[in-house]
Write a structure and sequence with these properties.
The structure is a homodimer of 341-residue chains. Chain A has 341 residues and is an alpha/beta fold. Chain A folds into 3 domains: 5-48, lambda repressor-like DNA-binding domains (434 Repressor (Amino-terminal Domain)), CATH 1.10.260; 57-165 and 303-330, Response regulator (Rossmann fold, 3-Layer(aba) Sandwich), CATH 3.40.50.2300; 168-300, Rossmann fold, CATH 3.40.50. The first copy, chain A, contains 15 helices and 12 strands. Chain A has helices spanning 5-12, 16-23, 31-44, 50-57, 73-87, 89-92, 106-119, 132-143, 168-183, 200-216, 232-245, 259-269, 284-291, 303-318, 325-328; strands at residues 61-68, 94-101, 123-126, 148-151, 162-164, 188-194, 220-222, 226-227, 249-254, 276-280, 297-300, 333-335. In chain A, helix 1 crosses helix 3. Chains A and B meet through helix 4, helix 9 and helix 14 of A and helix 4, helix 9 and helix 14 of B. Chain A binds a DNA duplex (30 and 30 nucleotides) through residues 4-6, 14-18, 20-21, 23-24, 26, 28-30, 33, 48-49, 51-58.
DNA sequence: GATTTTTTGATTTACGTACATCAAAATTGG
DNA sequence: CCAATTTTGATGTACGTAAATCAAAAAATC
């Protein structure tokens, strides 16, 4: 049997009330007494029964998710996963709210965060726009003991407790190697479609991609990056245009969202050409394109895992508990048409 | 606030004791009364607070893991993950025990299961040897209301509640496509190294692999399968022998364990040849081989996820609760040297 | 040494459920 | 209709922790 507060009280030679004061950092305990209790806790290996504690406290975990208001399948999917989590909230004692902010807009994100700091949620998850202003508020909130995790896209150099997303440099590198290996001995040009260089995940993917391309596949030349702002219409225009102008394109890497537009452009302008295409994010559109051979591989981050991981981590941080690191690592999924879920 | 037993009692117009009798299927409730209570439960959307219930019951979950006594890195890793889970058992109210049985030995597995049926654990996870005798006991145990999940390798047509492992047909298909795409226009022969055709996971991987090879890569010929019994020594011998005899081999698919032997053989016999190699299971050996380009891609199942998933599912089944299907799907990891964890 | 302040103890209630006991009511059998 | 049986209610305790109250003891201040 694991020890209880009663065992601690007996072992330390103090009353239950004192143990409670120590455990819940309430005032009115002398330093020496506090130490006696802490020693007993350590020696007996006491671990607070979180279930019982939550029951007694009637505790719930008010959590806030801050998402960019982007109209693409990935963000819709992320939203859907959060709604799923809301359905489970009674069992998990969570109370989840989402706030949408304009995409790629640091100032809007900052003001939302400022406001949140007043209403004291017990945890915040945000898709970070990577800007110094954002980092400043996040760091301040962390210092004020708000558990904060970044979701999908991280915040450079910030104190956030955790990042629930994939390693985007590795993702870019992986895309490059897949593209290079799939193309084999062919020489030609590679078009890269990104959302915006204002978000860190896109920058990092590009960074990884170009690094491996330069190191290992010198016969493939990367064309200037097309910035589609994760918008299907803009993406369509940019890709269609590039394909028309440049007959030397033999491969495409789409590292952002808005793949609907990319796929349409490919089907319109490249029916007669053999292109090798790698895209990010598994959605209804990219899935169909993978199956009909328009896309050769999809790199994906599982939005459901990211949301559940963010919630687990925020709850754990709120309780001052450890997390299972390996469990919270968000893996890069690679889908070919054979291993689609 | 979610409804409690008190709310149910009030709504149904009965006493707390009667609600309790209904909830815990105790006798002494008239049919009509029982229905009244069940209606109230449904209408208020009552969900038992599992944490409070477990607290009251002082419940623990005695779980048993049955593993083959195989001396390879994957099984060692699986064992290590179970030990990790044991460390968490006080917090998770689990009481985990593992039993080792001889590998590829249905009779041994059956007798262990028979014995377990007497001591009533609240859940069993087993790496199944796919044999009718094993299926028969498992089905009997399921009918006797033992929660059972298969781990890593499934049991054909059985009633087990859940399978915590990857889709091995998809894994084989994926391996074939990666190999085919990496080899590009080359023609030649492919060596396949398996553990044993007695376990379903290996059979399925081979099935998926040969299917895609036949459909999509007719220029690649699959040589007769080498059965290495997941043993590094045997694997080494078989692969070295095949490489010496057959100069036409341009690719290797290792779908089982014992990759230490494979890697040694490759380094000894194929330094001067350009081979494309796909192997299963990320271990210290395969990881090193991926980094030094001896292996081109590794397909992996995350043993930690499998163990944690098995535990979650067994607990949920023991409590008669639903599981989050998407969370319990074990994904096939594809590792290139760029996305190693 | 008396007074104030701080620290500690003892005790109670609560959280939501499980489970046991005993009495009261309702139903059934004869 | 009475007795036997079944069903239901009322009540209390327990699980491990949180949180509050009030009294008692110890320490610090003058």
């Amino acid at each position: 049997m694991r020890p209880t507060v009663h065992d601690i009280a007996a072992a330390a030679g103090v009353s239950l009330a004192t143990v409670d004061r120590v455990l819940n950092q309430r005032p009115g305990v002398r330093h020496v007494t506090r130490e006696k209790v802490e020693t007993a806790i350590r020696e007996l290996g006491y671990i607070r029964d979180v279930a019982a504690a939550n029951l007694a406290k009637g505790r719930t975990y008010p959590l806030v998710f801050i998402l960019p208001a982007s109209d693409n399948s990935f963000m819709h999917g992320l939203n859907a996963e959060i709604r799923q989590a809301v359905l489970r909230s009674s069992a998990e004692r969570t109370d989840i709210r989402t706030i949408e902010v304009p995409a790629f807009d640091p100032a809007a994100l900052v003001s939302v965060l400022e406001e949140l700091s007043r209403e004291k949620p017990c945890g915040i998850a945000l898709v970070a726009t990577d800007a110094p202003g954002v980092r400043a508020v996040v760091d301040r909130l962390v210092r004020e003991r708000f558990p904060i995790v970044t979701l999908v896209s991280d915040l450079t150099g910030s104190l956030r407790h955790h990042y629930a997303g994939v390693d985007n440099i590795a993702a870019g590198r992986t895309a490059a190697r897949l593209l290079g290996r799939f193309l084999g001995p062919k020489k030609g040009e590679i078009a890269v479609l990104a959302g915006s260089m204002l978000v860190r995940d896109h920058r990092e993917r590009l960074e990884g991609f170009t690094a491996v391309m330069a190191e290992e596949f010198p016969d493939l030349a990367i064309l200037p990056v097309l910035e589609g702002r994760d918008d299907p219409e803009i993406a369509h225009m940019l890709v269609a245009d590039a394909l028309c102008r440049n007959a030397g394109i033999i491969g495409v890497y789409s590292l952002g969202a808005g793949n609907r537009g990319l796929i349409r452009a490919l089907k319109e302008k490249a029916v007669d050409r053999v292109l090798t295409v790698i895209a990010h994010e598994l959605t209804a559109h990219t899935r169909a394109a993978l199956i009909d051979n328009t896309i050769d591989a999809i790199l994906n981050q599982d939005a459901g895992h990211e949301v559940r991981s963010a919630i687990r981590v925020l709850k754990a941080k709120a309780d001052g508990l450890a997390v299972i690191e390996a469990q919270e690592r968000i893996r890069l999924d690679i889908f070919l048409k054979d291993n689609l879920p």
